[in-house]
Amino acid sequence: SHLSLYTSPSLPNITLGLPAT
Amino acid sequence: DSLSIHQLAAQGEVLQVAVRLSKDVSLLSKQDERGFTPLMWASAFGEKTVVDLLLEKGADPKIVARDRESALTLASSGGYVDIIEVLLRRGVDVNVYDWNGGTPLLYAVRGNHVKCVEALLAKGADITTESDSGYSAMALAVALGYKKIQKVLEDHILRLY
């Protein structure tokens, strides 16, 4: 049977795309 | 049928997870190359039934991965409030932080997960913690324009003072 693999969990960059404070 | 315990946990294969554990209970705390346990994979993919089974069999929810990711932060980022609540009932640190300065609350805000923000605040999430880049939960909600989250945070602050 075809094994579908989930990609490893990852956490997003919380402030991606936001201006530096 | 050679999926790893981590893949089975992520894919919600609760029976196969149970079978693997019955043959080798040490798989409960098996960390992959980044330090992620089966509980973290199940939490990241919202597999509540598998989370319940792993905890019942004795998985340690307090283990953190190499960059200090935790089952709670992964569930918070994914917006899985039911998993957040079962982990908090197991006494995990609601304010666990990782090397990005991320906390469960900040990940829940980033994901615009209102119910998760409420559940974390109800269990004492620190609203003042800032990410490495200096964003508090409120500053993040405002910057992202998440009005509902902003309201939940404001109401919480009013209740505190």
Seen as an oligomer or otherwise, the chain set is heterodimer
Instruction: Please bin the fraction of helical residues of chain A.
Output: under 10%
- Global mean pLDDT of chain B: 96
- The general outline of chain A is rod-shaped
Structural class of the secondary elements of chain B?
A: mainly alpha
> Helical element count of chain B?
10
Uncertain regions spanning at least 5 consecutive residues of chain B: none
Tally of DSSP β-strands of chain B: 0
Largest sheet of chain A: none
Q: Assess the beta-strand content of chain A as a share of residues.
A: under 5%
- In percent terms, what proportion of residues of chain B is strand? under 5%
Q: What is the count of helical runs of chain A?
A: 0
CA(first)-CA(last) distance of chain B = 56 Å
- Helix and strand element order of chain B: HHHHHHHHHH
Helix percent of chain B reads 40-55%
Task: Write a brief caption for the model.
The complex is a heterodimer of chains A (21) and B (161). Chain A is 0% helix and 0% strand.
Lay out the secondary structure.
The complex is a heterodimer of chains A (21) and B (161).
Chain A: no helix or strand
Chain B: H1 5-10, H2 14-23, H3 38-44, H4 48-56, H5 71-78, H6 81-89, H7 104-110, H8 114-122, H9 137-144, H10 147-160
Helix pairs in contact in B: 3-4, 3-5, 5-6, 5-7, 6-8, 7-8, 7-9, 8-10, 9-10
Summarize the structure in words.
- The complex is a heterodimer of chains A (21) and B (161).
- By secondary structure, chain A is largely without helices or strands.
- Chain A is rod-shaped.
- The N and C termini of chain A lie far apart (51 Å).
- With 161 residues, chain B is mostly helical.
- Chain B contains 10 helices and no strands.
- In chain B, helix 5 (71-78) runs parallel beside helix 7 and helix 6 (81-89) packs parallel to helix 8 (114-122).
- The A-B interface holds A 1, 3-6, 8-9, 11-15, 18-21 and B 1-3, 7, 10-11, 32, 34, 36, 40-41, 44-45, 69, 73-74, 77, 98, 100-102, 106-107, 110-111, 131, 133-135, 139-140, 143-144.
